[in-house]
Write a structure and sequence with these properties.
single chain; about 260 residues; alpha/beta; globular
Length: about 260
């Protein structure tokens, strides 16, 4: 499988991984703040964006994604790049660190640190409801995306300040979200749960939006128990997908996290 990707900038390689139902353009607001000192690679996960479909073939969906991602690293000649991700991408970043595939890991609200079983069921319900509503409202999306109030309808569950998102991005994200529904179902069928061990010589940064309504910030306490050597950073006034809420803050976290080695 050859994954769709873009590469920008100069410096040490930094791979950025989006969350479930999203696409590589999730990082667009942050890119200009990174490329002066990093060679930034944004990639569409299997079953997302312009990448080929996710084909688990009896394996857990997240495991399949991780295996395809590591093949992608090999295809690009990436030897333990810095890896960062949001949500599912954060869990995959931590998996890369655990498997010896990353020099540093920076995870923004990583999935898999449920404080209680209902939190997984709640997150799944949010995605199911969002995809059903998005399918029903598909003809209205271009109109909704043009106003701040409409963008709150589209993205309010994931972004603290949808008004900061460009209308064209909101519309394209909505189309990508609906197109990824098979991959979303596969991921939630497995109930992603992070239980691997990241070696202490791999620097880990965990950042969490204080206004995350999908994966509440108290899940960072669970992450701290499982990753005691990680550095934890709050993202004030940011939601679950913080890249458009505060690009400058997220860029600073990514640069500092990928400099710790």
């Amino acid at each position: 499988m050859s994954l769709a990707y873009e590469r920008h900038g100069n410096g040490q390689p930094l791979v950025l991984l989006h969350g479930v139902g999203h696409r590589r353009q999730a990082w667009n607001a942050v890119l200009p703040l990174l490329t002066a000192s990093r060679s930034v690679i944004t990639v569409d996960l299997p079953g997302h964006g312009e990448s080929p479909p996710l084909v688990p073939a009896g394996r857990p969906a997240v495991q399949t994604m991780a295996e395809e991602l590591f093949k992608f690293f090999s295809e690009l000649g990436l030897d333990r790049p810095h890896v960062a991700g949001n949500s599912l991408g954060g869990a995959l970043s931590l998996t890369a660190g655990a498997r010896g595939m990353a020099s540093t890991v920076t995870a923004l609200a990583p999935a898999g640190f449920w404080a209680a079983g209902w939190e997984f069921r709640y997150a799944k319900a949010v995605f199911v409801a969002a995809q059903l509503a998005g399918h029903a409202a598909r003809p209205l999306v271009p109109t909704l995306a043009r106003s701040a109030a409409g963008r709150r309808v589209i993205d309010g569950a994931f972004v603290a300040t949808p008004s900061r998102m460009p209308p064209e991005q909101a519309e394209a994200d909505s189309r990508a979200f609906l197109a990824s529904r098979a991959a979303v179902r596969a991921v939630f069928a497995d109930g992603p749960y992070f239980a691997e061990t990241v070696p202490q010589d791999v620097p880990v940064t965990i950042a969490w939006g204080t206004k995350d309504r999908l994966l509440p910030p108290h899940q960072a306490r669970v992450a701290r128990q499982r990753l005691p050597h990680a550095t934890f950073v709050p993202l004030p006034c940011c939601g679950h997908v913080p890249m458009t809420d505060d690009p400058a803050l997220v860029a600073r976290v990514l640069l500092e996290g990928s400099a710790r080695s």
